[in-house]
Design brief:
With 250 residues, the chain is mainly alpha-helical. The protein is 68% helix and 0% strand. Helix 2 packs across helix 3, helix 3 packs across helix 4 and helix 7 runs antiparallel to helix 8.
Length: 250
């Protein structure tokens, strides 16, 4: 006679208990990710913050939607997102700092998911908690700077690469570069995860054909958009050369 083994109800309890614990720890981390930077929302503006807010104000007011009258040394994505916040919520320092604060919270979730995908939920939770308590992250979270959004989009590209979503990895990384040029430095780890991740069972040739080529296609298309925007501006030089002039040639 065939015997059917019925799992004991108690056997599933530790896993369920752990998942519930993980959820509450992650919720706790999200709460503090938004709470700890709040005292800095009304701090005086750094001169770069005032500059980016000024560009966004020119766009949101309709005075100069293409930024043809000012030297711009950054790609346009963050500036236009900031202009959208100004358009819908009004122009003030707190509104200007909301995109970066939300990007910081998104980075927390993405760091957790990357740790979970590569290792296990415990690793993701530890990484997320380390990010929440990082003084550097807390200081940058409520700023009108391009870095928090760039990091969030780059981490989205890393997560997509870890999950084998090569086309989406290209989209997210292109958006990171369209936020700040330094997003290009995330290209090597994204490519490494696409081809060399242990979960990838493709041969190197198949890896390049099925993983890397879709990534390169969407990345190139996404990268072309800020360059097209820059080419249609009348102010010269463009943002890439202007960044070299602003911060010194390397």
């Amino acid at each position: 006679m065939q015997k059917f083994q019925i799992d004991s109800p108690t056997a599933a309890k530790p896993q369920t208990s752990f998942l519930n614990t993980s959820f509450y720890i992650l919720l706790f981390a999200f709460f503090f990710a938004l709470l700890l930077p709040l005292p800095l929302l009304t701090s005086p503006l750094h001169h770069d913050e005032a500059l980016y807010a000024g560009w966004a104000r020119l766009i949101s007011s309709g005075i100069d939607p293409m930024l043809n009258t000012v030297p711009v040394d950054k790609p346009p994505l963050f500036i236009y997102i900031l202009a959208g916040f100004f358009k819908f919520f009004g122009v003030n320092d707190v509104v200007a700092r909301m995109p970066s604060l939300l990007a910081h919270a998104a980075t927390l979730w993405l760091v957790y998911r990357v740790g979970e995908e590569l290792y296990r939920p415990t690793v993701g939770l530890i990484a997320a908690l380390m990010l929440v308590l990082s003084p550097f992250a807390i200081l940058f979270a409520p700023t009108i700077l391009t870095d928090p959004l760039m990091v969030a989009l780059a981490m989205a590209a890393v997560l997509a690469a870890v999950r084998g979503k090569s086309a989406w990895a290209g989209v997210w990384l292109a958006l990171a570069v369209a936020t700040k040029q330094q997003g290009i430095f995330f290209l090597p780890p994204v490519l490494a995860f696409l081809v060399l991740h242990p979960a990838v069972t493709l041969s190197p040739l198949q890896g390049w054909g099925k993983r890397v080529l879709p990534f390169l296609l969407t990345f190139a298309i996404g990268l072309a958009l800020p360059l097209i925007w820059d080419a249609n501006r009348t102010y010269r030089p463009g943002f890439w050369l202007q960044s070299s002039l602003s911060y010194g040639q390397v």
